[in-house]
Design a protein that fits this description.
globular; alpha/beta; 11 strands; 14 helices; single chain; 328 residues
Length: 328
């Protein structure tokens, strides 16, 4: 989701993404809007938004264990896939999904746009699971050499924050580079054509570029960002359905434990779903922790730093109090 200093443009972008989310979910026969939310709660439907790279949720969906746990409660589970976190959160904002998994930056942009969600749980830091890549024959040896260069990344995503943090660490300002806002697939194409100088991306796309085209990591997130991943809930759903959320988080935790104990098997199961070789997926899986904890004050403080930085850069239109996005 794009954020603009100009309030009207920001609202227009929100409307565009809302339409995109509605179209995507309409194809999946999911209800949209506040009326749909009420209907889902009455019918005991849990609507989960996920991304193809969200390994734990993808496997949870494939294994069907959540459905088995919720069946005695009369709860039906519906799944909706999204290209990235910003689109997923816009869908949550308009009432199309009840729960989703995204990185650390999308919730900041979503809260700035007025989305009414709450932080539910988070994955412990996984900074090695994202990085700044350059072609294997690139002369660039450090982030400091990116001044004036074209750096591609998905705007509003985790790697947006990675770029900001890496530049600051290297003594550069955000305006010292030429940001090129591209989704992963488009960025990969531009990267291979030499149309950009560097590409900030997360796994498994990072591992795929390393193994398939010899991309070299100029820097990872280690020492620059925490790279938390978050489970978020629509506030109304979390308030009215604590038992469903409890079961959901229990099953997510169990799935994470299974992945840690069966990484190769998990990669083999994900390969046909994600369209990547199992060895690439296994590399990416090993860079994530798959350990989830309830949201606490410390992780919210980290989110506040991100929100403050984006506001200072005028990437979001207003200053945020991140702790507003929790159940009191």
């Amino acid at each position: 989701m794009k954020a603009y200093s100009d309030k009207n443009k920001f609202k227009q972008r929100r409307a565009t993404l809302a339409r995109l989310s509605a179209i995507t979910l309409g194809a999946l026969a999911l209800s949209v809007g506040s009326a749909g939310t009420a209907q889902a709660q009455e019918a005991k439907v849990l609507r989960i938004g996920y991304q193809k790279a969200a390994n734990t949720l993808v496997l949870l969906k494939a294994h069907g264990t959540l459905e088995k746990r919720l069946q005695p409660l009369g709860v039906e589970v519906k799944w909706a896939e999204f290209a990235a976190g910003p689109q997923l959160l816009e869908a949550l904002n308009v009432g199309s999904v009840d729960f989703g998994y995204v990185g650390e930056a999308p919730p900041v942009f979503a809260q700035a746009a007025g989305a009414d969600f709450v932080y539910t749980a988070y994955e412990i830091p996984t900074p090695d699971a994202e990085g700044l890549l350059v072609p294997k024959n690139s002369p660039l040896k450090s982030v400091a050499e990116l001044k004036g260069k074209k750096v591609a990344f998905n705007k509003g995503s985790d790697v947006h924050w990675l770029v900001v943090a890496l530049l600051k660490k290297a003594g550069l300002a955000y305006h010292d580079i030429q940001p090129v806002y591209l989704a992963p697939a488009d960025a990969r194409a531009a990267f291979e054509k030499g149309a950009i100088d560097a590409w900030a991306i997360w796994d498994p796309f990072q591992a795929a570029a390393e193994k398939q085209v010899g991309a070299r990591r100029l820097a990872s997130g280690v020492g620059a960002v925490n790279h938390h991943q978050f489970f978020l809930s629509a506030r109304a759903f979390a308030t009215k359905n604590p038992q469903i959320e409890k079961v959901l988080l229990e099953e997510i935790t169990r799935e994470g434990q299974w992945v840690r104990a069966n990484t190769a098997q998990a990669a083999a199961q994900l390969a046909p779903i994600q369209g990547l070789d199992a060895d690439i997926i296994e590399t990416g899986l090993k860079r994530y922790a798959h350990i989830y904890k309830p949201v606490d004050a410390a992780v919210l403080a980290e989110q506040q730093k991100i929100a403050d930085a984006f506001f200072e850069l005028k990437l979001i239109p207003k200053q945020l109090k991140v702790s507003d996005a929790v159940l009191k």
